[in-house]
Structure formats: structure tokens, C-alpha cells
Specification:
With 368 residues, the chain is of the alpha/beta class. Helices cover 27% and strands 32% of the residues. It starts with a strand and ends in a 6-residue tail after the last strand.
């Protein structure tokens, strides 16, 4: 199918096109500020769906709001009102406001409602995500870019609350509509994107500075939180590429090496151990610290013994079949490289290593 995307070079347009390009049997016709309207007119008989994203949201001349938002929408509606082509237009939550931007968006919405039947009007909240222009009209993009580039940010009121929506949630919903599915959130002819994330400017800035401080370390934020996951991905997209490389500390001794790779704020840490042939590591147990061992190269014998009754077990694992071995608390354990080459062991632990409270107690595993 042929799909028209107006505002193709804008923030939402660029992201939506990247999603549409992954769809099979979709041909994209783009329209942007430098194109003539005749480009749409010449292709309209072949177009089967329209994403009308074009508009003006920042200008020194208020008349631009009406020409770029209201008039362009009216021109497009007049072209298709007898053709029953589905159209999805992006409006704004400011469409209920009395400023010129809001009025121009509301007038565009009303013209669509009055002249079309096959339409979807999306009132968008503050959108954040990759490829948004910084220092323009998005505080998230501005904060991300400036903080990532060691520039100052300005906050007039830390308690100012924003309602944010994420670009990929928009694109995912728009593709659902393209496939003929119903909007998730629609009331009185107006559609909205979910979920929405309320956040204050102060909290937003504090979180982004935490990201900045963690980038050059092995710490990662709590990406189990959906908003943190999306905001962290957004922040990293503004980071200069040369700043995306972090060096881990490799601890080397006669046995091999041990390196902490990732520390999380909520889900423990991930490390990697390299052992020479014949080397035995461990012979200790934990009360609360839980570990998972994964041999990704070589062959190992993993043994553990109940510290109360001496019940013991062992497993031989290798890289032919990747197995994850969880070490129960209260079991002393050891891992031996029984192969002829180095053994590489990936380790997840449910807590960060604390040298003052290591929760590690020496006890030899007594089993064959």
C-alpha cells in the first residue's frame, strides 16, 4: 500500500518512517516543508493511508500557526473528502487552549470532523525520544543534549509538572491504526497515546544527571522501570558516540582474571571470570547473596554442599549446551576448570559487592 507521511523530516515523521520501512508491502510518499503541494495532488489517487504530521509549533509570526496547521490541513482535507482515504492527524493537548498555536490546532481538528468520516485525531502530550531537535521546543531533548554535552540547563521552577509520552509508543500505536485496529484510547472523536509519564522538571533533570554520572562507569539505571528505560535510551541517543565506551577494571592473578561488567541500582551485578586449566574457585557460601553461573567457554565442574547436613551435588557443564546454574544460599560451592583450555564463566549476583559486608564465608566443598 502507498502511505503518505506529511512532516516527514520532523521528529515524529523521521521515527514513523523508520518504523514504516520495516513493514512489508508499504511504499512511503513523503511531504515536507520544502515540497510543493502538487506532490500530494499528483499521487493522491494511489494513496491508501495518510499520516498528517506536518505543522508549525514554534514561530515568531503567529500567522504561521494558521497557515502551517489550519490551512494546510484544510487543503489536504478538501483534496480527499470525496475519496474516503483514512487519515491520521497529529494535534496537541494545547488544542483546548486560547493561544494561537492551540486555536490553529483546534480549527484544524474541527475541519477534519466536519468534512471527513474516516479519520483519527491524536492529541499528543509532550513527546520525547531519539532524533528530537534540542534547544527548540522539547525540554527533554534540550536537557538530554545539554547535559550530555556538558552544557548548562535552565530550570525556572523545579516543581513544574510535565506529562510525557514516548516516541516508540506513538509509532507502535500509529502502525496499529494503519493495520485497521482500533485506537487504544479514544473519547469523543479524539485519540490519545498511552502510557503517559508525569514528571517534574526537577526530577527530570536529577535523573538525567544520574545518567550522565553513570555512563562512564559500570552502573546502569533501573531499566525495569518503563519510564527510566525509555528516558535512558533517549539520553544515550544524544551522547557523543566517543563517550559511549567505558573501560571495566580487570583483576588478574595467577588463577586468571575477574571483571565486574555491569552494576545495577536494583538487580545486582554481572561479572565475568576467566580461569586457567585446573583452577578451582569458590569454596565459600552465602546467607543472602544468590549467584547464577553460566559457562560460556570451556568445561567446568560445579559442586555445592549443604552447610548444615553435608548433602552434596555436582554438575559438569560446558559451552556445547549453555546451562544456567543457580547456587542456592546456604550451600558452599566451588567451580573447577576441568578442561584443557581457559574457562570463561559469566556470573550474575543479586546484590552489589560490598567489601564491608561481603556475605562470603569460607568452607570447603567435600564431594567428588
Amino acid at each position: 500500500m502507498k502511505v503518505l507521511v506529511t512532516g516527514a523530516n520532523g521528529f515524529i515523521g523521521k521515527n514513523l518512517i523508520s518504523w514504516l520501512q520495516e513493514e512489508e508491502n508499504v511504499e512511503i510518499i513523503t511531504y515536507d516543508i520544502n515540497d510543493k503541494f502538487s506532490k500530494i495532488e499528483n499521487n493522491i489517487d494511489d494513496i491508501q493511508f495518510i499520516f498528517h504530521l506536518a505543522g508549525v509549533n514554534r514561530t515568531k509570526n503567529n500567522a504561521d500557526f494558521y497557515s502551517g496547521n489550519t490551512n494546510l490541513t484544510q487543503q489536504l482535507v478538501d483534496l480527499i473528502k470525496d475519496k474516503n482515504i483514512p487519515i491520521l492527524i497529529t494535534s496537541s493537548i494545547q488544542a483546548t487552549s486560547d493561544n494561537d498555536y492551540g486555536k490553529s490546532k483546534r480549527m484544524a481538528e474541527n475541519y477534519v470532523k466536519e468534512n471527513l468520516t474516516n479519520y483519527y485525531i491524536f492529541r499528543l502530550h509532550n513527546v520525547f525520544g531519539k532524533w528530537c531537535k534540542p534547544n527548540y521546543n522539547s525540554v527533554v531533548a534540550t536537557f538530554c543534549y545539554n547535559i550530555a554535552h556538558d552544557l548548562e540547563i535552565t530550570i525556572n521552577d523545579r516543581d513544574t509538572c510535565l506529562s510525557l509520552i514516548y516516541i516508540d509508543d506513538i509509532c507502535r500505536e500509529f502502525l496499529r491504526i494503519l493495520r485497521g485496529e482500533n485506537p487504544v484510547d479514544r473519547a469523543d472523536g479524539i485519540c490519545y497515546i498511552s502510557p503517559k509519564y508525569p514528571v517534574t522538571l526537577g526530577s527530570l533533570a536529577d535523573t538525567l544527571y544520574e545518567f550522565k554520572n553513570s555512563v562512564n562507569s559500570i552502573y546502569v539505571p533501573n531499566t525495569g522501570d518503563e519510564f527510566i528505560k525509555k528516558l535512558y535510551s533517549t539520553y544515550i541517543s544524544y551522547l557523543p558516540v566517543e563517550k559511549t565506551v567505558t573501560e571495566a577494571v580487570k583483576n588478574v592473578d595467577e588463577r586468571g582474571s575477574f571483571t565486574e561488567l555491569v552494576r545495577t541500582t536494583s538487580c545486582g551485578q554481572f561479572s565475568i571470570s576467566i580461569s586457567k586449566p585446573g583452577i578451582v574457585r569458590g569454596n565459600h557460601y552465602h546467607h543472602t547473596k544468590l549467584e547464577r553461573f553460566i559457562v560460556v567457554k570451556g568445561t567446568a565442574k560445579i559442586s555445592f554442599m549443604n552447610v548444615l547436613d553435608g548433602t552434596s551435588y555436582h554438575f559438569v557443564v560446558d559451552d556445547k549446551t549453555i546451562k544456567i546454574v543457580t547456587i542456592p544460599v546456604g550451600y558452599t560451592h566451588k567451580i573447577e576448570n576441568i578442561g584443557t583450555d581457559e574457562m570463561i564463566l559469566a556470573i550474575w549476583c543479586n546484590e552489589l559487592f560490598d567489601k564491608d559486608r561481603p556475605d562470603t564465608y569460607f568452607k570447603t566443598v567435600e564431594c567428588e
